[in-house]
Please model this.
Amino acid sequence: MIRLRTVTATTAALALLVTGGVLVAAPAQAAPVPVSPAFGSIIDDYADYEPEDDCDPTAKPGTLALEDLLLDTYGPATVYIERSCVSGGSSGHHAGRALDWMHDVGDPEEYEEAEAFLGWLFAADQYGNRDAMMRRLGLMYIIWNRQIYASYDPGWEPYYGSSPHTDHVHFSLSWDGAYERTTYWNPQDSFPAVASCPTPPTLPAPPPANYGAGLGYVVTTPTRLLDTRLAGQGVAERCKLRAHGRLDIPVTGRGGVPGSGVGAVVLNLTGISPDIGTYLAAYPAGKAFTGTASVNIFPGEITSALVVVPVGTNGTVSLLNGSGRADVVVDLVGYHPLSGGALYNVQAPQRALDTRVTANPLATRETRNLALPSVPAGATSVVLNLSSVSPATGGYLSVSAGGSSASGTSSVNMIAGRVVTNRVYVSVDQARSINLYASAAGHVIVDVVGWFGPSGRRYVPVTPVRAFDSRTGFGGADQLVGGRAQQIGLQEARLPGDAVAVVMTTTTTEVYDATHVTVWAHGQPRPATSDINTYPEHNTANLVIAGLSEGSVDVRLGHGESELVGDVLGYFR
Ligand SMILES: [Zn+2]
Model:
């Protein structure tokens, strides 16, 4: 978007012109500076460098406010904020948090104005805070006249980019600046500026894992391991995970997980109110991030996804945030011990509940018992796909064994008007039933894809490997077209011949409809279930656990078109 404020001739000026009066240049005077609010002594830290690799060009409130500040102080000028993401390079303009104020070094008046404003930004305040207004506005860096002034390396440095920036001043804002979460816009002393979580030093690589013949599974009482919104809940101080920020979360010796002998843990990751669309990834601490995202979160929303993660160095797993800043919650739901534990049984996916069909939605704060007749006696836990269907208001769904009360950890975050799905591992009671709890009224769908019991298959984690990507045809996958089943071999994952089910994070992208994807064992009858529910123009990820036949799965999109990407995390054999 180009925002251009043109000069509006006042009536008086018009009168002057039409009466033929002589216009005389105003006497030279120093360019003004903005009138700042009265600040207390608390001041923002210098903005961290936050990578500008996001795509959401809509001008952010803090960027528009900075524009107003410039135009109100210096009068009309051309200002550019938004830039299409297809134009190359990383730029704050792609995220609506950069602003170009068109002022030319060759124009004495414009040069004076630019210098006056920058001088105001970098002046110390009455408390001795250097670069006070730059910090209070959340400016990350400024480029002007072949020089750059960065908050993460304060002071002018030569700028060698392709544009000399002699015809405009470029301002890049931090996410806090872009959202007016800085003291300039909240001048009271008590403004709660939330710090970014400190990133710990990288741990040494873990020793090579030996999973033997594979791992059993032990369900635990869901336990919250991390909540960045609460000091002491996995973080020393309340903080937000910054772009590319990492936390290492101890998982052994907590929440019912033994201190040793653990191959992998099953976690539910929740991202909360990111500044911009982002992803969270979990992987063994001490190992490199493989690029496999576990959950995609839309700006300002709450989304969860289940993930199975091998345990890394010091019994910890690493958690990474892709973009912007977000709060993060991690719940432990079970673990795969190196010996013992329940074994997995694949079943043909089966819809156990669809309250749209029974016309009996869950009421607000209702707990409902649901029998799972497809699950045989002896089963101790089940693997479900749980969906909240277009509730009127947001809330959450929680699942627990029949006869028990809700655990206090959520499995699905309900979003008004949206279908939201998550994979769930949950205990069943002797009668093979579960309890569903809804914090808000809405329709619910439960699909069962397998169960754990005394006999069955063992889980083998692998280093996450991309098995297919329909955008490029990788792994033999083609774009999904509504109503048409497609076989996808998983040769790229090099699964052994005795693998009977695959565990993979599967992501839809380039999708323009609210529809669903079903994944099942190749050649079997198509089940009436869904694995991913899409939302237009957003990436949606879910943990898919599907039976294998001839090493392949079949996938089918409800309607429209979508690309599909699969990253294999492990398999059952
Ligand atoms: Zn710019």
In short: Residues 93, 98, 100, 170 surround zinc ion (CB under 6 Å). The first strand starts at residue 2 and ends at 4.
